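task queued by scheduler; priority normal; single chain, no ligands, no partner chains; default sampling; output format set to C-alpha coordinates
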Amino acid sequence: MTEPLDSPPEQLPPAPESKLVTGQSKKKQKKQKKQKIVLDVVIVEAEKIVGTKESLFGQLFGKPSVCNSSCKVILSDKQYVTQTVENELNPVWNEDCTFQYKEQHGTLRVELRQSFAFGSMALIGEATVDLTAVRPGDDVTDRWCDLQSPASESDTASVCGRVHLLLHATSPGDETALLSHFGEPLSYLPIRVSAGDIVLFNTSYWTAAAARMMQGTDWDHIGMIIRLPSGKLRLFESIPDGVNRFKLNERLRFYHRIGKIGFRRLLAVRTKEMLDGLHDFHLEVLGRPYKALANVLEMIRAFSSSNQTENLETIFCSELLAAAFKRMGLLSPELCANNFLPRDFETDRVPLLMGKFGPLKVFDRQGERPIPSAAVGSQEEVSLPPGP
Protein backbone atom coordinates (compact mmCIF):
# COMPACT_ATOMS: atom_id res chain seq x y z
CA MET A 1 0.00 0.00 0.00
CA THR A 2 1.30 3.49 -0.87
CA GLU A 3 2.23 5.66 2.10
CA PRO A 4 0.20 8.95 2.40
CA LEU A 5 2.03 12.06 1.32
CA ASP A 6 3.02 14.61 4.00
CA SER A 7 2.23 17.50 1.66
CA PRO A 8 -0.07 18.01 -1.32
CA PRO A 9 1.30 16.72 -4.62
CA GLU A 10 1.55 20.24 -6.08
CA GLN A 11 4.05 21.25 -3.36
CA LEU A 12 6.47 18.42 -4.19
CA PRO A 13 9.47 19.20 -6.41
CA PRO A 14 9.10 17.83 -9.94
CA ALA A 15 10.55 14.38 -10.43
CA PRO A 16 13.37 13.95 -12.94
CA GLU A 17 11.00 12.26 -15.36
CA SER A 18 13.42 11.53 -18.18
CA LYS A 19 16.06 9.97 -15.91
CA LEU A 20 13.44 7.98 -13.99
CA VAL A 21 11.93 6.54 -17.13
CA THR A 22 15.36 5.73 -18.53
CA GLY A 23 16.37 3.91 -15.36
CA GLN A 24 13.14 1.93 -15.24
CA SER A 25 13.49 1.05 -18.90
CA LYS A 26 16.99 -0.30 -18.34
CA LYS A 27 15.80 -2.40 -15.41
CA LYS A 28 12.85 -3.64 -17.43
CA GLN A 29 15.04 -4.57 -20.36
CA LYS A 30 17.47 -6.35 -18.07
CA LYS A 31 14.60 -8.26 -16.47
CA GLN A 32 13.17 -9.19 -19.83
CA LYS A 33 16.51 -10.62 -20.90
CA LYS A 34 16.42 -12.95 -17.91
CA GLN A 35 12.82 -14.02 -18.42
CA LYS A 36 12.39 -17.78 -18.31
CA ILE A 37 10.37 -19.39 -21.08
CA VAL A 38 8.78 -22.84 -21.12
CA LEU A 39 8.85 -24.46 -24.56
CA ASP A 40 6.61 -27.45 -25.28
CA VAL A 41 7.74 -29.46 -28.31
CA VAL A 42 5.92 -32.30 -30.06
CA ILE A 43 8.12 -34.26 -32.48
CA VAL A 44 5.45 -35.46 -34.87
CA GLU A 45 7.13 -37.11 -37.86
CA ALA A 46 9.71 -36.91 -40.63
CA GLU A 47 9.35 -37.50 -44.31
CA LYS A 48 11.21 -37.61 -47.64
CA ILE A 49 14.35 -38.91 -45.95
CA VAL A 50 17.23 -39.38 -48.39
CA GLY A 51 20.94 -39.96 -48.03
CA THR A 52 20.66 -42.84 -45.56
CA LYS A 53 23.75 -45.00 -45.24
CA GLU A 54 23.88 -48.70 -46.05
CA SER A 55 24.53 -51.01 -43.17
CA LEU A 56 27.46 -53.41 -43.46
CA PHE A 57 24.95 -56.23 -43.99
CA GLY A 58 23.30 -54.30 -46.81
CA GLN A 59 26.64 -53.58 -48.45
CA LEU A 60 27.68 -57.21 -48.33
CA PHE A 61 24.42 -58.79 -49.44
CA GLY A 62 22.85 -56.06 -51.56
CA LYS A 63 19.85 -55.49 -49.31
CA PRO A 64 17.79 -52.37 -50.06
CA SER A 65 18.40 -49.28 -47.93
CA VAL A 66 16.13 -48.93 -44.92
CA CYS A 67 16.20 -46.37 -42.17
CA ASN A 68 15.99 -47.05 -38.44
CA SER A 69 15.66 -43.46 -37.35
CA SER A 70 15.34 -41.41 -34.21
CA CYS A 71 15.12 -37.67 -33.69
CA LYS A 72 17.20 -35.71 -31.18
CA VAL A 73 16.05 -32.24 -30.06
CA ILE A 74 18.61 -30.05 -28.29
CA LEU A 75 18.19 -26.74 -26.49
CA SER A 76 21.08 -25.29 -24.52
CA ASP A 77 22.45 -28.15 -22.37
CA LYS A 78 19.25 -30.26 -22.44
CA GLN A 79 18.30 -32.86 -25.02
CA TYR A 80 15.55 -35.33 -25.79
CA VAL A 81 15.82 -38.38 -28.06
CA THR A 82 12.80 -40.18 -29.46
CA GLN A 83 12.44 -43.91 -29.73
CA THR A 84 13.82 -45.49 -32.89
CA VAL A 85 11.32 -46.24 -35.65
CA GLU A 86 12.58 -49.18 -37.68
CA ASN A 87 12.48 -49.83 -41.43
CA GLU A 88 10.70 -46.59 -42.28
CA LEU A 89 11.65 -43.66 -44.51
CA ASN A 90 8.68 -41.64 -43.20
CA PRO A 91 8.86 -42.26 -39.44
CA VAL A 92 6.10 -41.10 -37.08
CA TRP A 93 6.97 -40.50 -33.42
CA ASN A 94 4.38 -38.20 -31.82
CA GLU A 95 6.63 -37.76 -28.79
CA ASP A 96 6.82 -34.70 -26.58
CA CYS A 97 9.40 -32.86 -24.53
CA THR A 98 9.49 -29.59 -22.62
CA PHE A 99 12.42 -27.23 -22.20
CA GLN A 100 12.98 -24.24 -19.98
CA TYR A 101 15.31 -21.54 -21.25
CA LYS A 102 16.09 -17.85 -21.22
CA GLU A 103 15.51 -15.69 -24.23
CA GLN A 104 19.16 -15.27 -25.09
CA HIS A 105 19.48 -19.06 -25.54
CA GLY A 106 16.59 -19.40 -27.95
CA THR A 107 17.91 -21.74 -30.67
CA LEU A 108 16.51 -25.26 -31.03
CA ARG A 109 18.62 -27.85 -32.84
CA VAL A 110 17.07 -30.93 -34.45
CA GLU A 111 19.05 -33.99 -35.55
CA LEU A 112 17.76 -36.98 -37.50
CA ARG A 113 19.87 -40.02 -36.73
CA GLN A 114 20.14 -43.48 -38.24
CA SER A 115 20.73 -46.52 -36.02
CA PHE A 116 22.78 -49.58 -36.92
CA ALA A 117 23.63 -52.84 -35.20
CA PHE A 118 25.57 -52.82 -31.92
CA GLY A 119 24.37 -49.32 -31.04
CA SER A 120 26.26 -47.36 -33.71
CA MET A 121 24.65 -44.17 -35.02
CA ALA A 122 25.01 -41.89 -38.05
CA LEU A 123 23.75 -38.36 -38.55
CA ILE A 124 21.39 -38.11 -41.54
CA GLY A 125 20.57 -34.41 -41.31
CA GLU A 126 20.01 -31.51 -38.97
CA ALA A 127 18.09 -28.26 -38.70
CA THR A 128 17.90 -25.26 -36.39
CA VAL A 129 14.87 -23.31 -35.28
CA ASP A 130 15.22 -19.67 -34.25
CA LEU A 131 12.96 -19.35 -31.23
CA THR A 132 12.84 -15.56 -31.28
CA ALA A 133 9.71 -15.93 -33.40
CA VAL A 134 8.16 -18.45 -30.96
CA ARG A 135 7.19 -16.35 -27.98
CA PRO A 136 4.87 -16.61 -24.99
CA GLY A 137 1.36 -15.51 -25.90
CA ASP A 138 1.58 -16.82 -29.45
CA ASP A 139 -0.51 -19.71 -30.75
CA VAL A 140 0.97 -23.16 -31.30
CA THR A 141 3.51 -23.08 -34.14
CA ASP A 142 3.10 -25.91 -36.65
CA ARG A 143 6.37 -26.12 -38.54
CA TRP A 144 8.10 -28.34 -41.10
CA CYS A 145 11.88 -27.97 -40.88
CA ASP A 146 14.15 -28.87 -43.78
CA LEU A 147 16.99 -31.16 -42.75
CA GLN A 148 20.42 -30.39 -44.14
CA SER A 149 22.80 -33.29 -44.68
CA PRO A 150 26.19 -32.91 -43.00
CA ALA A 151 28.61 -31.49 -45.56
CA SER A 152 31.83 -33.35 -46.23
CA GLU A 153 35.05 -31.88 -47.56
CA SER A 154 34.10 -32.81 -51.13
CA ASP A 155 30.51 -31.59 -51.26
CA THR A 156 28.08 -29.12 -49.76
CA ALA A 157 25.09 -29.68 -47.52
CA SER A 158 21.80 -30.53 -49.21
CA VAL A 159 18.22 -31.09 -48.11
CA CYS A 160 17.81 -34.72 -47.05
CA GLY A 161 14.27 -34.64 -45.67
CA ARG A 162 12.15 -32.64 -43.30
CA VAL A 163 10.82 -33.02 -39.78
CA HIS A 164 7.44 -31.92 -38.43
CA LEU A 165 7.32 -30.11 -35.07
CA LEU A 166 4.69 -28.45 -32.91
CA LEU A 167 6.09 -25.62 -30.77
CA HIS A 168 4.41 -23.63 -28.02
CA ALA A 169 6.15 -21.11 -25.78
CA THR A 170 4.57 -19.96 -22.51
CA SER A 171 5.55 -18.41 -19.22
CA PRO A 172 6.14 -20.72 -16.23
CA GLY A 173 2.89 -21.86 -14.64
CA ASP A 174 0.73 -21.07 -17.68
CA GLU A 175 -2.07 -23.65 -17.70
CA THR A 176 -2.87 -22.93 -21.35
CA ALA A 177 0.43 -24.48 -22.47
CA LEU A 178 0.22 -27.17 -25.13
CA LEU A 179 1.40 -29.93 -22.78
CA SER A 180 0.22 -28.55 -19.42
CA HIS A 181 -2.07 -31.57 -18.96
CA PHE A 182 1.09 -33.65 -18.40
CA GLY A 183 2.03 -31.61 -15.35
CA GLU A 184 4.97 -29.46 -14.36
CA PRO A 185 8.18 -29.14 -16.42
CA LEU A 186 11.34 -30.36 -14.74
CA SER A 187 14.46 -28.22 -14.62
CA TYR A 188 16.90 -31.14 -14.91
CA LEU A 189 15.31 -33.16 -17.73
CA PRO A 190 13.10 -31.86 -20.58
CA ILE A 191 9.86 -33.53 -19.56
CA ARG A 192 6.63 -32.64 -17.76
CA VAL A 193 5.56 -34.86 -14.87
CA SER A 194 2.82 -35.04 -12.26
CA ALA A 195 1.96 -36.89 -9.05
CA GLY A 196 1.43 -40.58 -9.72
CA ASP A 197 3.88 -40.82 -12.61
CA ILE A 198 6.46 -43.59 -12.22
CA VAL A 199 10.22 -43.41 -12.73
CA LEU A 200 12.29 -46.49 -13.61
CA PHE A 201 16.03 -46.73 -13.09
CA ASN A 202 18.83 -48.74 -14.67
CA THR A 203 21.85 -48.37 -12.41
CA SER A 204 25.44 -49.48 -12.81
CA TYR A 205 25.90 -51.53 -9.64
CA TRP A 206 26.58 -55.28 -9.99
CA THR A 207 23.67 -56.14 -7.70
CA ALA A 208 21.37 -54.12 -9.95
CA ALA A 209 22.66 -55.99 -13.00
CA ALA A 210 21.82 -59.27 -11.28
CA ALA A 211 18.30 -58.01 -10.49
CA ARG A 212 17.76 -57.04 -14.13
CA MET A 213 18.98 -60.41 -15.33
CA MET A 214 16.64 -62.26 -12.99
CA GLN A 215 13.66 -60.18 -14.11
CA GLY A 216 14.51 -60.14 -17.82
CA THR A 217 14.20 -56.35 -17.94
CA ASP A 218 16.32 -53.21 -18.32
CA TRP A 219 15.18 -51.81 -14.98
CA ASP A 220 16.28 -52.68 -11.45
CA HIS A 221 14.63 -49.93 -9.38
CA ILE A 222 11.51 -47.81 -9.44
CA GLY A 223 10.05 -44.77 -7.71
CA MET A 224 6.99 -42.54 -7.87
CA ILE A 225 6.52 -38.80 -8.16
CA ILE A 226 4.45 -37.19 -5.42
CA ARG A 227 3.40 -33.62 -4.76
CA LEU A 228 3.55 -32.04 -1.31
CA PRO A 229 0.84 -29.64 -0.06
CA SER A 230 3.32 -26.85 -0.81
CA GLY A 231 3.16 -27.84 -4.48
CA LYS A 232 6.74 -29.14 -4.60
CA LEU A 233 7.44 -32.39 -6.43
CA ARG A 234 9.35 -35.20 -4.73
CA LEU A 235 10.63 -38.65 -5.65
CA PHE A 236 9.09 -41.26 -3.35
CA GLU A 237 11.03 -44.53 -3.18
CA SER A 238 12.17 -47.43 -1.04
CA ILE A 239 15.95 -47.86 -0.98
CA PRO A 240 18.28 -49.88 1.32
CA ASP A 241 18.14 -46.97 3.77
CA GLY A 242 14.36 -47.32 3.95
CA VAL A 243 11.33 -45.48 2.56
CA ASN A 244 11.95 -41.80 1.97
CA ARG A 245 11.30 -38.89 -0.36
CA PHE A 246 13.85 -36.77 -2.18
CA LYS A 247 13.99 -33.47 -4.01
CA LEU A 248 13.06 -34.56 -7.51
CA ASN A 249 15.49 -32.75 -9.80
CA GLU A 250 18.52 -33.36 -7.60
CA ARG A 251 17.68 -37.03 -7.15
CA LEU A 252 17.24 -37.49 -10.90
CA ARG A 253 20.64 -35.86 -11.46
CA PHE A 254 22.20 -38.43 -9.14
CA TYR A 255 20.56 -41.41 -10.84
CA HIS A 256 21.34 -40.06 -14.30
CA ARG A 257 25.06 -40.24 -13.52
CA ILE A 258 24.92 -43.94 -12.67
CA GLY A 259 22.50 -45.17 -15.31
CA LYS A 260 19.54 -44.42 -17.51
CA ILE A 261 16.13 -43.19 -16.41
CA GLY A 262 12.70 -44.06 -17.77
CA PHE A 263 9.38 -42.28 -17.19
CA ARG A 264 5.85 -43.64 -17.58
CA ARG A 265 3.11 -41.12 -16.99
CA LEU A 266 -0.09 -42.05 -15.25
CA LEU A 267 -2.74 -41.23 -17.84
CA ALA A 268 -5.74 -40.94 -15.55
CA VAL A 269 -7.85 -38.18 -14.06
CA ARG A 270 -6.39 -37.47 -10.64
CA THR A 271 -9.21 -36.75 -8.21
CA LYS A 272 -8.70 -35.02 -4.88
CA GLU A 273 -9.47 -38.32 -3.14
CA MET A 274 -6.71 -40.06 -5.09
CA LEU A 275 -4.11 -37.42 -4.32
CA ASP A 276 -5.12 -37.20 -0.66
CA GLY A 277 -4.84 -41.00 -0.41
CA LEU A 278 -1.36 -40.92 -1.95
CA HIS A 279 -0.21 -38.16 0.38
CA ASP A 280 -1.58 -39.89 3.49
CA PHE A 281 0.00 -43.19 2.46
CA HIS A 282 3.42 -41.64 1.93
CA LEU A 283 3.32 -40.09 5.41
CA GLU A 284 2.34 -43.42 6.96
CA VAL A 285 5.24 -45.39 5.48
CA LEU A 286 8.07 -42.81 5.61
CA GLY A 287 11.04 -44.33 7.44
CA ARG A 288 9.90 -47.93 7.22
CA PRO A 289 12.78 -50.32 6.49
CA TYR A 290 13.60 -51.96 3.20
CA LYS A 291 12.97 -55.69 2.79
CA ALA A 292 15.97 -57.39 4.41
CA LEU A 293 17.58 -60.69 3.42
CA ALA A 294 15.25 -62.38 5.90
CA ASN A 295 12.39 -61.43 3.57
CA VAL A 296 14.13 -62.53 0.37
CA LEU A 297 11.66 -65.41 -0.11
CA GLU A 298 8.84 -62.87 -0.29
CA MET A 299 10.65 -61.09 -3.11
CA ILE A 300 11.35 -64.39 -4.90
CA ARG A 301 7.67 -65.35 -4.70
CA ALA A 302 6.85 -62.08 -6.45
CA PHE A 303 8.34 -63.54 -9.66
CA SER A 304 5.45 -65.99 -9.79
CA SER A 305 2.88 -63.72 -8.05
CA SER A 306 2.53 -66.35 -5.34
CA ASN A 307 2.52 -64.15 -2.24
CA GLN A 308 -0.82 -64.62 -0.50
CA THR A 309 -0.51 -61.82 2.05
CA GLU A 310 1.35 -58.53 2.25
CA ASN A 311 3.23 -56.98 5.13
CA LEU A 312 4.10 -53.31 4.74
CA GLU A 313 6.22 -53.17 7.87
CA THR A 314 9.12 -53.66 5.45
CA ILE A 315 8.83 -52.59 1.82
CA PHE A 316 10.79 -53.07 -1.40
CA CYS A 317 10.63 -50.53 -4.23
CA SER A 318 7.94 -51.94 -6.54
CA GLU A 319 5.86 -53.10 -3.57
CA LEU A 320 5.81 -49.48 -2.41
CA LEU A 321 4.36 -48.32 -5.73
CA ALA A 322 1.75 -51.05 -5.89
CA ALA A 323 0.62 -50.24 -2.34
CA ALA A 324 0.46 -46.54 -3.25
CA PHE A 325 -1.74 -47.25 -6.28
CA LYS A 326 -3.99 -49.39 -4.09
CA ARG A 327 -4.39 -46.48 -1.68
CA MET A 328 -5.23 -44.21 -4.62
CA GLY A 329 -7.98 -46.62 -5.66
CA LEU A 330 -6.25 -47.51 -8.91
CA LEU A 331 -5.44 -51.12 -8.00
CA SER A 332 -7.80 -53.69 -6.56
CA PRO A 333 -7.48 -54.02 -2.77
CA GLU A 334 -7.52 -57.80 -3.29
CA LEU A 335 -4.12 -57.73 -4.99
CA CYS A 336 -0.97 -58.24 -2.92
CA ALA A 337 1.41 -55.32 -3.41
CA ASN A 338 4.41 -57.60 -2.83
CA ASN A 339 3.63 -59.52 -6.04
CA PHE A 340 4.80 -56.64 -8.25
CA LEU A 341 8.33 -56.13 -9.58
CA PRO A 342 9.88 -53.24 -11.56
CA ARG A 343 9.44 -55.25 -14.77
CA ASP A 344 5.66 -55.19 -14.27
CA PHE A 345 5.62 -51.39 -14.40
CA GLU A 346 7.72 -51.40 -17.57
CA THR A 347 5.01 -53.39 -19.34
CA ASP A 348 1.24 -53.44 -19.00
CA ARG A 349 1.15 -56.12 -16.30
CA VAL A 350 -0.22 -53.69 -13.71
CA PRO A 351 -4.04 -53.99 -13.94
CA LEU A 352 -5.14 -50.43 -13.24
CA LEU A 353 -8.84 -50.05 -12.51
CA MET A 354 -8.94 -46.82 -14.52
CA GLY A 355 -6.58 -45.06 -16.86
CA LYS A 356 -3.28 -46.48 -18.06
CA PHE A 357 0.43 -45.80 -18.12
CA GLY A 358 1.82 -43.85 -21.04
CA PRO A 359 4.68 -45.02 -23.27
CA LEU A 360 8.14 -45.33 -21.78
CA LYS A 361 10.32 -42.22 -22.23
CA VAL A 362 14.01 -42.99 -21.74
CA PHE A 363 16.94 -40.71 -20.91
CA ASP A 364 20.28 -42.48 -21.37
CA ARG A 365 23.07 -42.30 -18.85
CA GLN A 366 25.04 -39.06 -18.51
CA GLY A 367 28.36 -38.45 -16.79
CA GLU A 368 30.59 -40.54 -14.61
CA ARG A 369 29.71 -42.69 -11.65
CA PRO A 370 29.71 -40.76 -8.36
CA ILE A 371 30.65 -42.05 -4.94
CA PRO A 372 28.14 -44.89 -4.34
CA SER A 373 25.73 -43.92 -1.63
CA ALA A 374 22.07 -44.87 -1.60
CA ALA A 375 21.05 -41.62 0.02
CA VAL A 376 22.99 -39.20 -2.18
CA GLY A 377 20.81 -36.66 -3.94
CA SER A 378 18.97 -34.38 -1.56
CA GLN A 379 17.43 -36.68 1.00
CA GLU A 380 15.02 -34.72 3.16
CA GLU A 381 15.05 -34.74 6.92
CA VAL A 382 11.68 -36.42 7.09
CA SER A 383 12.53 -40.01 7.80
CA LEU A 384 9.60 -40.35 10.18
CA PRO A 385 6.14 -38.80 10.34
CA PRO A 386 4.82 -36.22 10.87
CA GLY A 387 5.26 -34.83 7.36
CA PRO A 388 5.69 -31.27 6.22
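post-processing summary
- The first strand starts at residue 36 and ends at 47.
- Confidence is low (pLDDT under 50) at residues 1-21, 55-64, 368-376, 381-388.
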